[in-house]
Amino acid sequence: MDVLAKNLPYLLSGAVMTLWLSLAVVSLSTLLGFIIGTLGAVGGRTLRALVTAYIFILRGIPVLVVMFLGYYAFPAFGYRANAYVAVGTAQIVYAGAFVAEIVRSAILSVPAGQFAAARGLGMPRGKILMHVVFPQAVRLAIPPLLNTSLTTIKQTSYASVVGAWELTWAAREVVERTLAAFQIFLGVMAIYFCICYPLAALSRWCEGRFVVAH
Amino acid sequence: MDYAAQVTAFLLGQMPKLLAGFAVTLTVAVAAIPLALALGVVLLAPRLSGRRLPSGAVQAYIEVMRGTPLLLQIYLIYFGLPLIGLFPSEFTCGVVGIALQHGAFLCELFRAAIESVSQRQWEAGRAIGMTQLAVFRYAILPQALMKVLGPLGNQVIVLIKDTSLVSAIGVMELTLTGKMVIERSAASFEIFVAVALFYLIVTAAVGAGFRLAEQRYAGRL
Fold this sequence. Notes:
The structure holds 2 protein chains of 2 kinds.
Chain A: H1 2-42, H2 45-59, H3 63-76, H4 83-108, H5 112-120, H6 125-155, H7 159-162, H8 167-178, H9 181-213
Helix pairs in contact in A: 1-2, 1-4, 1-6, 1-8, 1-9, 2-4, 3-4, 4-6, 5-6, 6-9, 8-9
Chain B: H1 3-48, H2 52-67, H3 70-80, H4 90-116, H5 120-127, H6 132-162, H7 174-182, H8 188-220
């Protein structure tokens, strides 16, 4: 136990890194996914096809491979980027596909008649989205979005495989030095659990609530 | 030679290695899928038993699996087991790690599918003199299977994608092969596009297979 205690400050600095990475990836991928998902639901035919392709391709590839692609893509196109930017960008693009799929199907689940009715009242497209479609769609989308965020946070640990230092990398360093695999890895799993469990609980709480409301 | 021809020639040259890695990826998936399914089914009985202790234990297990990254679970198995005198191969550690995680998720899927079938059917079956087991076998199970096919297909796809994580403990599967090939070449991005395509082909095929099964099954029911 004192191996864990002695290395806890180091691990916690890794946890802070994980939290920053998670915050950046979850917020930006949610934003990206909202825009792309909305375009995929209400855009023209070409746009909808492009969004479908984006979602299909990204969801069919392991996130680790997407991270490697991101890591090597910057130099391939002549840019120099540090590991965090490369891996973070890859994760945003990846998680964005999952968010887009959730947002698109939530919007499409709002009955088309409502859209027609609002058009009949003379509301412009933007207003219909803001006042009629989104309030209903968001309600449906929140529980699966929380689940996706949870998965995304856990996936930031894969950044350590590609070359960005964070909690999981810190854990491996400490284990290689101390050989205390059980104490350190279980301790780090507990840290991840403390980050993830509140989200999981919130997701369950929402699920019970919003389903009834709709 | 122009760029396209160069890249094509290079990728074709590396194809035997990539195919070998792809075969290992498929082997990991084929080994882990039945294990995960079995674990999901085994955990189902205590989870549904309604008794506080077994049901709570399974629930706690599922929460832990849901709240911690698979990569760490694999590390724990791979670096932890030697400390207690067990020396399984990297392959075994990876397969067991994936199965332990996905078994938990599958148990939740199965439970949700069974509970989504109206509880009245249990009562109705019992009332016409069927045993509990018979109600489950002839009334509940067929409907639950129908409902579980979609989510099950998604979970299997996630599992196949998760096999890429065993590269972190040194199993020479597709992702690690890609990384190794890169270290001896300059076409790093192109190699990973090829690797991604391999994964996309499998996950698309599995997804299509499950959708087809769903349609067939819905037709028979």
